[in-house]
Amino acid sequence: xxxxxxxxxxxxxxxxxxxxxxxxxxxxxxxxxxxxxxxxxxxxxxxxxxxxxxxxxxxxxxxxxxxxxxxxxxxxxxxxxxxxxxxxxxxxxxxxxxxxxxxxxxxxxxxxxxxxxxxxxxxxxxxxxxxxxxxxxxxxxxxxxxxxxxxxxxxxxxxxxxxxxxxxxxxxxxxxxxxxxxxxxxxxxxxxxxxxxxxxxxxxxxxxxxxxxxxxxxxxxxxxxxxxxxxxxxxxxxxxxxxxxxxxxxxxxxxxxxxxxxxxxxxxxxxxxxxxxxxxxxxxxxxxxxxxxxxxxxxxxxxxxxxxxxxxxxxxxxxxxxxxxxxxxxxxxxxxxxxxxxxxxxxxxxxxxxxxxxxxxxxxxxxxxxxxxxxxxxxxxxxxxxxxxxxxxxxxxxxxxxxxxxxxxxxxxxxxxxxxxxxxxxxxxxx
Length: 431
Description:
This protein is α/β, with parallel strands linked by helices. The protein has helices at about 10-20, 40-45, 75-80, 85-95, 120-125, 145-160, 180-195, 210-215, 225-240, 255-270, 275-300, 315-325, 340-355, 375-385, 410-430, and strands at about 25-30, 100-105, 130-135, 170-175, 200, 220-225, 245, 305-310, 330-335, 370-375, 390-395.
């Protein structure tokens, strides 16, 4: 039967907006109808809180419509005929009073048909602040395409130039507001690399400010954490700044093995010892064993438990490999998002083929019976609506709305213990 409950995945417009909203002191002006702004403003504000108030009356000024982020020109029928220049000039005047360090105007798909010269309007309205316009985000493009193109435009507008490199320093590429726990994931990488004497300079699109972005040329190496979102930026920086990049072979540092491989590969590039970070992983492994041994002796789990994953190819590869090798769990469905890295997709196919589990690749995670599902909140909700007695762990957005007051991470040895905690508690109480 045809699956009619799948998510509407974020597209290139969402990717472009989140790329710029992920710059701490930047502002995105959405040139489009009012309805196009609400989701983007809500997610941006949820992932990076700029205002303590949820009261819509606190943001009653024109163009904001009760939300603190992503002001819009609220296009109507007349604007599609006569153009949106006057509204854009008015919203730019309002935004310039808020002390942003970078301004971007992004057309919605409909606004792209009007033909307004965004660069001309910006040049007439904005002085002394880097700014740029995106007239077309790419109709029906993927999130990663929109994200990469917008971030490239942002870096171009800052006029980055090659300079002296800092010894043992990196930028982390491919992290963004769309990812669950992205800020604490960064903190975990910074902590582990810092133990080995490696400095993280920039994480573009993941809450760095403009001044930090200007420091990115000083990094000796770019590390592409998620190639689906960061490879475009890495190639641009290599071309313009001659900064080499690596894509860690084990994927993002999810699980003990991938974390150790991630740190070791970067340390090897600089000729440094990974032992200080590996020692933390070894201690976490010992702690996990204490709980796993008692848990398995009582329930026989998690060995043999069935799980599903819905994620990018790089995330799916790291997660599937860890769950099957470390916990002896069995995949039921591995659904990949539209943004796919071909190299990691090939690695995933090869790994599943070696296990004799190729048939699980491409199955819909929201309609396959399972005991544990790693996906966005919407997919987890869909499974529950179909009375699937499973436990879900959110690894992406949209969220089910759980308030994460305690800081959490999916990366590093702490992230591995957090995932393990969810698995053991989920399987224990699932029907």
